[in-house]
Design brief:
66% helix; elongated; 23 helices; 628 residues; alpha/beta
Length: 628
């Protein structure tokens, strides 16, 4: 019978999945849009608020449609450029692999750090927006919004640890409902909306203030581009030809996101929505448009659903990218390991914990989070476009066909313009919003780059230390081996340790006890002689009642006499079956073993003795079933 803990683990996380059961699945374009594009499309739910917030400070909200058009133009430009990215590189490494290959490992490392920061803030922004939408239609206070965001992260984490595969029909339904909600809002707003109010007397604004406001509005609206790298990495999931189909998926996703954003931005302007201080602009539009609360509730449900789907999908992409960085020795190698559910558990837990910290620290403040959000993705975009310029230049240099050469030069020009536009957005956000939160994202990227370089340096040093050389001394046999058995008291575990030590046929064999109390030491010596064990017993004096110190000194004394010899220390240990029993046994032996392992020329042999509780667990263990 399986134990309760085993049954609970299976119920929550599912039965183990065999490696052979993991088969790649090729999906069609309409499914790929729902699976990979929800992150980009969902941004339309809160991007109009970001543009409106940038314009409101300079009293320029009347320019909302023009700023939205500027954002759409930028989206179409970068979408066209990324379509060529996907066609040139169809693997899951996407921007990270492209930049690493064309611009070098250092630039690739910066790209990887930027994407990790982008994914982190994607989850934080999505769940924060989700909390704001839920609070608009439910009795949720400002203090409870943080709890809503954390609850969403917990649910996403559990489902991702279980390895729940994306249900195509569910994601398609979520996407269709969200787009349908926007279409309904647009149609009703166009034919049943109020007259556009006459322009009020505008306050005199300096040209410099106007330029800053317009640049800030387009830069804030550029949050719409977050998620494009996720779509660009979808190549391996498409049917052949993967590059063509992935490029088509990306263009359609960009078109849907751009249309949704422009439609909602126009409605916000049309109904003179003032900003998100009183709630999400999309829901305020619905309030102004419909009588009663139910239409607004339905719109909120559509927005919450796609925001949840967007955040949940990023968990897998973050875990996948962190596994790639780990395989390149930039992150701990544990992040490249899949668990028994074929999930990169380390990556999932990392983004869950990090995003929870961001949500709590920011108190679901969307205005501040969005400024952090844009920095990461546009760092990646700028570097990837520069890499594409270099790739296109190399292809132009090798091309001999005039027509194909002209096409390649046109693509190179496209990537040059895209890189310049992305750099301009990055500069605007980094300079004008530096104190509003952009510095946090930049700081995180710097810390990640420094940390990943340190990890890479450590692994490189370890590889050098472990490299086998000619006539390697590690292969030399020791001059002699000395067996030492720790005997705290004479019982069955001690007898088993002595038996194992005898079977190893060491050059010398000694049992060691420590005198904590005089009568206990005398009793041990008496029983030892009576049982005629055949191994000399050495009692070490310990005036301060410490077991570890005298044993360590005894082992070191053997080494001082014969530095080339090896000491094998046998330590009997209890194997327990209940978690709380760990605190009742093995405390001194664990500390001793830890110190001995750090001593050169010492081998520690833990001799297990299974208590009844542990034996029950072993007999009740049910082998893992392979799930197809």
């Amino acid at each position: 019978m399986p134990t309760f803990a085993h049954r609970l683990k299976t119920a929550i996380f599912g039965a183990p999945i065999a490696t052979d059961a993991a088969r790649p699945v090729a999906i069609r374009t309409r499914v790929a849009i729902a699976v990979f594009g929800t992150g980009m499309i969902s941004t339309a739910a809160y991007a109009p608020d970001a543009v409106l917030d940038a314009l409101r400070g300079a009293n320029l909200t009347s320019a909302m449609p023009w700023m939205a058009a500027g954002v759409v133009a930028l989206m179409l430009l970068l979408g066209a450029a990324y379509r060529n990215n996907v066609r040139q590189r169809r693997d899951e490494r996407a921007d990270y692999g492209l930049v690493r290959e064309k611009l070098g490992p250092s630039a690739g490392l910066v790209t990887g750090a930027a994407l990790l920061v982008d994914y982190l803030f994607t989850v934080a922004v999505s769940v924060s927006a989700l909390a704001h939408f839920a609070a608009y239609v439910l009795p949720i206070s400002d203090n409870q919004k943080t709890m809503v965001g954390l609850l969403a992260i917990v649910v996403m984490t559990l489902l991702n640890l279980r390895g729940v595969h994306d249900r195509a029909r569910v994601l398609i339904a979520v996407l269709v409902v969200f787009v349908a909600a926007i279409v309904v809002l647009l149609l009703v707003g166009m034919f049943a909306g109020p007259e556009i109010p006459a322009a009020s007397a505008a306050q005199e604004t300096s040209t410099w203030s106007v330029v800053i406001a317009f640049a800030g509005a387009i830069a804030s609206g550029s949050v719409m581009m977050t998620g494009i790298e996720h779509v660009a990495a979808s190549g391996p999931s498409h049917e052949a030809p993967q590059g063509v189909r992935a490029g088509r998926t990306l263009l359609i996703t960009v078109a849907i996101a751009a249309a949704a954003f422009f439609a909602l931005s126009w409605l916000v302007w049309h109904f003179s929505i003032s900003g998100w201080a009183e709630g999400p602009a999309v829901l305020k539009v619905a309030d102004a448009m419909f009588v009663g609360t139910w239409p607004t509730v339905l719109i909120a449900i559509a927005c919450v659903s796609i925001l949840y789907a967007a955040a949940a999908s990023v968990f897998k992409r973050f875990a996948g990218l962190s596994s790639l960085l780990a395989s390149d020795s930039y992150l701990p190698r544990q992040l490249a390991m899949r668990n028994d559910r074929l999930v990169f558990r380390g990556g999932v837990l990392t983004i869950a914990l990090a995003s929870a910290v961001v949500v709590v620290a920011s108190r679901v403040n969307l205005q501040q989070l969005i400024h952090m959000y844009v920095i990461g993705v546009f760092t990646s975009i700028v570097l990837s476009q520069i890499a594409m310029v270099r790739l296109m230049s190399a292809k132009v240099a090798l091309e001999t066909e005039p027509r194909e050469e002209l096409r390649l030069k046109a693509l190179r020009l496209l990537h040059i313009v895209a890189a310049a536009a992305a750099m301009a957005v990055w500069a605007v956000v980094a300079v004008f919003n530096f104190l509003n939160g952009a510095w946090i994202a930049i700081g995180l990227m710097v810390i990640l780059v420094i940390g990943m370089r340190a990890v890479q340096g450590h692994y490189a040093k370890v590889r050098q230390e472990l490299r086998i050389t000619d006539n390697d001394p590690a292969a030399a046999l020791p001059s002699a081996t000395h067996g030492v058995v720790l005997v705290a008291q004479l019982h069955r575990p001690a007898l088993r340790a002595i038996a194992y030590a005898k079977a190893s046929r060491h050059t010398s064999l000694t049992a060691v006890g420590v005198k904590i109390e005089s009568h206990a030491a005398r009793e041990l010596q008496k029983r030892w002689l009576d049982m005629e064990i055949g191994v000399p017993l050495v009692i070490l004096d310990s005036p301060y009642r410490d077991i570890v110190g005298p044993v360590m000194e005894y082992v070191k004394s053997i080494h001082r006499e014969s530095p080339r010899d090896v000491v094998v220390m046998y330590v009997p240990e209890y194997i327990v079956g209940r978690w709380w029993e760990q605190f009742l046994h093995n405390r001194s032996s664990s500390r001793l073993r830890s110190l001995l392992l750090r001593t050169p020329g010492v081998v520690v042999a833990a001799v297990p003795w299974h208590l009844e509780s542990a034996a029950d667990q072993v007999t009740s263990f049910e082998p893992a079933r392979h799930v197809e």
